[in-house]
């Protein structure tokens, strides 16, 4: 029983430290952003493919049916290129998008975008490194390593 | 076995309860977000400018960097201990790390003058590091460019070693022609005045003449006795020593020592290991002041509480 309790305590501590580990944000911390994600459907107005972070401007309808313009950031162009193969042509004004984001705590229509899909389900951005350690930016787990090694082995096979 | 199963369930419950997304209320329930997203991998297309061009160090994800290192046999390949040329970025635990992290846990006690600088560097906002020189793309300075660069390249010339940085797209001269550090540098420099020499297998770089407007590193709110985010300062009398030693073809050990008696009561040493990223090129990754100001105006300042 004692051993079980100790095991549980150890697991709890591991979980606690995993949850508290903070993501690497170059230009600001996380204090302005809610930790609760929301999902919004939007129509892209502008795609700003620039440092320090790519910005997306889109319109979405609020609960009252009123059109609201939102602004959201993802990673830098180089990070987006690395993580999701983005280029300057990946998005264009008029694109319909489903955006998962953490909105500003202040209630302003601003957010850090964690994931983007198109209405047909195509994933445009998996979880960005902006999403925080619980989702992305933490160290690789054993499962991550295994998945990556397997993908690398498959890639090697296809080249031979 | 049953106990283990119960423990697992309890564990996942605890983990889920602590997850930042655990209590997320999805406004569009048909779009379920999984809490275990896939990591980037080789299924992501590698973007290069075209045939013959390579991806920039920052433009490759961890899986591609791992592939490049594997193909180059970085752990076993013969190497010249006196050749540190190549593109270096990340470390073995995290190939996507933007630079060698300063060991902020090892920060020495500040002098009274240093403490005042540190307090004054605090942001006026708990939400935003408003005084960070990086907000307006002021030069990162040294050694902050070592701790944040997204990749750097050593190029060895007969009379100097050039250190090119991807972030900021700039370089540092490390003179190896036998000259000494200037006794009283006429103009302070963000990257200082640097001379290098080999001591056995170690390339030793000494530098001085720093502009005191840069930070050594940003500092988190709630750490080191500050309530709001800020940065670790230095004075114009700071001297920096780096000792670079190639452990194998793919690993560079770095010992960084900051000596600044006006600000820190003892020298501040950080040791790290930086990984070689073969098959990449240093990209153009400028910090553009107008873009950074636009970014803050668009998605930082609007989120701050109204005064």
Describe it for me?
The complex is a heterodimer of chains A (160) and B (307). With 160 residues, chain A is of the alpha+beta class. In chain A, 31% of the residues lie in helices and 28% in strands. Chain A is built from four helices and six strands. Chain A has helices at residues 2-20, 77-84, 133-137, 142-159; strands spanning 38-48, 55-61, 67-73, 96-103, 110-117, 123-125. In chain A, strands 1-2-3-5-4 form a five-stranded mixed β-barrel. The termini of chain A are far apart. The longest helix of chain B is centred in the N-terminal third of the chain and has 17 residues, at 2-18. Chain B is of the alpha+beta class. Chain B starts with a helix and ends in an 8-residue tail after the last helix. The model of chain B is unreliable at 1-38 (pLDDT under 50). Chains A and B meet through helix 1, strand 1, strand 3, helix 2 and strand 5 of A and helix 1, helix 2 and helix 5 of B.
Give the fraction of residues assigned to helices of chain A: 25-40%
Low-confidence stretches of chain B: 1-38
Tell me the fraction of residues in β-strands of chain B, as a range: 15-25%
How many helices of chain A does DSSP assign? 4
Give the helix/strand class of chain A: alpha+beta
| Proportion of residues in extended strands of chain A | 25-35%
Biggest sheet of chain A: strands, sense, closure? 5 strands, mixed, barrel
Quaternary status: heterodimer
Give the strand order of the largest sheet of chain A, numbering strands 1, 2, ... along the chain. Answer: 1-2-3-5-4
Unreliable segments of chain A (pLDDT under 50, ≥5 consecutive)?
5-26, 132-141
Biggest chain pair contact, residues each?
Answer: A-B, 72 and 76 residues
Q: What strand order characterises the main sheet of chain B?
A: 1-2-3-4-5-6-9-10-11
Share of helix among residues of chain B? 10-25%
Q: Based on CA inertia axes, which overall geometry of chain B fits?
A: globular
Query: Mean pLDDT of chain B, rounded to whole units?
Result: 88
Shape of chain A: globular
Distance between the termini of chain B: 58 Å
Radius of gyration of chain B: 22 Å
What average pLDDT do the residues of chain A reach? 74
């Amino acid at each position: 029983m004692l051993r079980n309790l100790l095991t549980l305590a150890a697991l709890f501590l591991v979980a606690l430290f995993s949850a508290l580990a903070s993501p690497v944000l170059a230009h600001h911390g996380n204090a302005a952003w809610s930790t609760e994600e929301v999902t919004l459907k939007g129509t892209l107005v502008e795609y700003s493919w620039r440092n320090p972070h790519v910005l997306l401007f889109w319109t979405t309808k609020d609960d009252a049916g009123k059109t609201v313009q939102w602004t959201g950031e993802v990673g830098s162009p180089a990070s987006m290129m690395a993580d999701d193969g983005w280029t300057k042509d990946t998005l264009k004004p008029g694109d319909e998008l489903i955006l998962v984001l953490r909105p500003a705590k202040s209630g302003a229509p601003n957010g850090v975008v964690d994931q983007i899909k198109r209405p047909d389900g195509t994933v445009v951005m998996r979880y960005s490194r902006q999403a925080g350690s619980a989702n992305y930016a933490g160290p690789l787990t054993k499962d991550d390593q295994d998945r990556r090694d397997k993908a690398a082995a498959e890639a090697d096979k296809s080249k031979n | 076995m049953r106990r283990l199963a119960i423990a697992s369930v309890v564990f996942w419950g605890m983990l889920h309860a602590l997850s930042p997304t655990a209590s997320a209320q999805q406004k569009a329930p048909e779009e379920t977000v999984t809490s275990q997203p896939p990591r980037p991998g080789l299924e992501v297309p590698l973007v290069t400018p075209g045939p013959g061009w390579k991806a920039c160090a920052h433009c490759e994800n961890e899986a591609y960097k791992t592939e490049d290192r594997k193909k180059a046999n970085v752990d076993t390949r013969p190497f010249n201990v006196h050749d540190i040329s190549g593109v270096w970025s990340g470390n073995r635990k995290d190939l996507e790390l933007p630079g060698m992290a300063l060991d902020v846990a090892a920060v020495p006690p500040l002098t009274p003058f240093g403490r005042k600088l540190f307090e004054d560097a605090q942001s006026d906002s708990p939400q935003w590091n408003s005084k960070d020189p990086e907000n307006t793309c002021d030069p990162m300075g040294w050694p902050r460019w070592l701790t944040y660069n997204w990749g750097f390249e050593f190029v060895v010339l007969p009379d100097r070693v050039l250190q090119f940085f991807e972030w900021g797209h700039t370089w540092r001269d490390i003179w190896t022609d036998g000259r000494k550090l200037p006794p009283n540098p006429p103009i302070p420099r963000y990257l200082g005045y640097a001379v290098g020499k080999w001591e056995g297998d170690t390339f030793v770089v000494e530098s001085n003449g720093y502009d005191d407007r840069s930070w050594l590193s940003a500092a988190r709110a709630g750490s080191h006795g500050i309530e709001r985010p800020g940065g670790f300062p230095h004075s114009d009398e700071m001297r920096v020593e780096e000792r670079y030693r190639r452990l194998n073809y793919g690993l560079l050990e770095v010992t960084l020592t900051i000596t600044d008696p006006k600000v820190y009561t003892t020298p501040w040493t950080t040791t790290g290991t930086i990984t070689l990223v073969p098959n990449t090129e240093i990209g153009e990754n400028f910090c553009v002041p107008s873009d950074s100001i636009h970014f803050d105006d668009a998605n930082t300042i609007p989120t701050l509480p109204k005064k």
